[in-house]
């Protein structure tokens, strides 16, 4: 959420010349996305997002991400394709970083989506999953269920600084979940992080799906579960908005009906999403200096969502009492 | 250089409705300017910069800044006027902060201006000083010479952590300067911070003068001296580019010829600029945590410039040895 790598106007003008997209008119560093540096760039022809990939995105994963963007854009999804230079290359180096020039999409990220907006976003995810049926890229989920126990171990007892008993409670919930995880469900290329931040909208219309840098091959329904957990609660995770949650699922099923087995597994997958974001936020929380100029996101905001997806379990947890 | 106050898309859409400038299409938090929060906002009609004023800008000073912008824009200078709402108000409150909607200007800030670009920028400053001849606003320079000794005292001996002997050296240089400060020269409304960051250009043309939040009433020539010190050196302050420095002065004099007295005083004023930015950067340096996600600007980068403006003095300073 900051600009980590500065790109001078002079360097940027030279960079743009590789693409034949017009002359540089304006460039503003923007605070957006995961830990990359982003510029909103205007040329005499069009507007773009220039992304320089910082440490969280591995350069080796970029071909996967970009081929997924290309695939989805070609299928008519509102996904910004990376621009290729005169030699057909989309992945570049700029200021010592891997860099891509991506088409700008209009629209705003909502803070408080309405059910009508959630319906549209759910439909967009369903359409995305339909569109990847013939996408043959593969990427392991670097934040998938296999990584949660090791991340829990790395966080260690420091978790109890966040809430009393949190370490033991996450261990318990995770053990419970791993015993019932529906690994037999369908997999496909998923976004894995489709928070409201990553959906651009104008009114009730989805104009952009962005920030695919956690995209991977994993359970299709887990993608919807992440979205459900991200969209259907207030920022503290205390208030559940069932109308928004139901609309997401309703929208999704317009493209992809859910089987009884999938409906039965949904709460487990959503609980998994809660654990995944609790752990990653807790790790960031424990490793971000208090006085750093970034907002530390409350790890408990996702933990509290367990009360909706796993009420019986949540009632037994000291950290949620 | 960060977005300190988050404004939701929903709140922003409501805010824009006060102005009659069209519907919200896009909003991106941008990393720009002094410690304010800025958004690049696009509507169905136009583009704007939304600024929310954080602690460094006093709400009481906003009427001065905005009337200066209006005055300069009305005179045809490339200065972005603040947009007035349907009731004629330019100063608003948004998300608990004073806020203004300012017209977006094209152009990029240069990192390595050429002499031709410096000539244009010098001309723009000269034109700006001509244009304020009938501007009757007054604001004390909150970073003027009267504030340097108190700021030096507040920094104290910690300055010697930055360079051995720095505290005593600044005290000595400042004493020297105060004895000869040409306070009798003309005053007017000045920008007081016209670094390359704050000049937007397209090619050799100035398309915008921005970030007037240090503007004040002070010595007219001090404005040019600040610009000269800011533009004519590499980032470390070691390499002086006389062609750029000369072009700035040459451009300025196209609108405002300098008297012999002014030419004789120029190095004193530039040395003052060096001390002012050394002190403010040193204060920020000493008070910014090392691990904060903002770039701490090297205070010595301005201190080293004394070697050009005051070579005999600089030769006597331990901190520059």
UniProtKB/TrEMBL annotation, chains A, B:
Matches recorded under CDD domains: HomoserineK_II
Gene Ontology BP term (one): threonine biosynthetic process
Alphabetic keyword roster: Amino-acid biosynthesis, ATP-binding, Kinase, Nucleotide-binding, Threonine biosynthesis, Transferase
Catalytic activity: L-homoserine + ATP = O-phospho-L-homoserine + ADP + H(+)
Family: Belongs to the pseudomonas-type ThrB family.
Recorded metabolic or biological pathway in which this protein acts: Amino-acid biosynthesis; L-threonine biosynthesis; L-threonine from L-aspartate: step 4/5
Protein name: Homoserine kinase
Residue ranges annotated for the Aminoglycoside phosphotransferase domain, each copy included: 27-257
Pfam families per UniProt: APH (PF01636)
Protein origin, superkingdom: Bacteria
PANTHER family: AMINOGLYCOSIDE PHOSPHOTRANSFERASE DOMAIN-CONTAINING PROTEIN, AMINOGLYCOSIDE PHOSPHOTRANSFERASE DOMAIN-CONTAINING PROTEIN-RELATED
Record EC number: 2.7.1.39
One of the record's GO molecular function terms: ATP binding
């Amino acid at each position: 959420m900051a600009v980590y790598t500065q790109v001078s106007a002079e360097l940027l003008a030279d960079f743009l010349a590789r693409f034949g997209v017009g002359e540089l008119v304006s460039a503003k560093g923007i605070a957006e996305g995961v830990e990359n540096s982003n510029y909103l760039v205007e040329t005499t022809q069009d507007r773009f997002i220039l992304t320089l990939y910082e440490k969280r995105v591995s350069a080796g994963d970029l071909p996967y991400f970009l081929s997924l963007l290309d695939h989805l854009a070609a299928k008519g999804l509102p996904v910004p394709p990376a621009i290729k230079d005169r030699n057909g290359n989309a992945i570049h180096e700029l200021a010592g970083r891997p860099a891509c020039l991506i088409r700008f999409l209009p629209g705003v990220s909502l803070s408080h989506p309405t059910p009508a907006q959630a319906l549209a976003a759910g439909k967009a995810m369903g359409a995305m999953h339909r569109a990847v049926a013939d996408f043959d890229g593969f990427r392991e989920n670097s934040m998938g269920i296999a990584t949660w126990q090791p991340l829990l171990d790395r966080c260690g007892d420091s978790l109890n600084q966040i809430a009393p008993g949190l370490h033991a409670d996450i261990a318990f919930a995770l053990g419970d979940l791993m015993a019932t995880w529906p690994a037999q469900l369908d997999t496909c290329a998923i976004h894995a992080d489709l928070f409201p931040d990553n959906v651009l909208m104008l009114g009730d219309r989805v104009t952009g799906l962005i920030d695919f840098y956690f995209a991977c091959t994993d359970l299709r329904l887990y993608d919807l579960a992440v979205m459900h957990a991200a969209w259907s609660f207030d920022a503290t995770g205390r208030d559940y908005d069932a109308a928004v949650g139901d609309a997401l699922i309703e929208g999704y099923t317009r493209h992809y009906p859910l089987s009884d087995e999938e409906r039965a597994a949904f709460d487990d997958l959503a609980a998994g999403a809660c654990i995944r974001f609790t752990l990653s936020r807790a790790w960031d929380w424990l490793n971000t200096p208090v006085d750093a100029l970034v907002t530390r996101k409350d790890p408990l905001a996702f933990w509290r969502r367990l009360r909706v997806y796993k009420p019986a379990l949540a009632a037994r947890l000291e950290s949620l009492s």
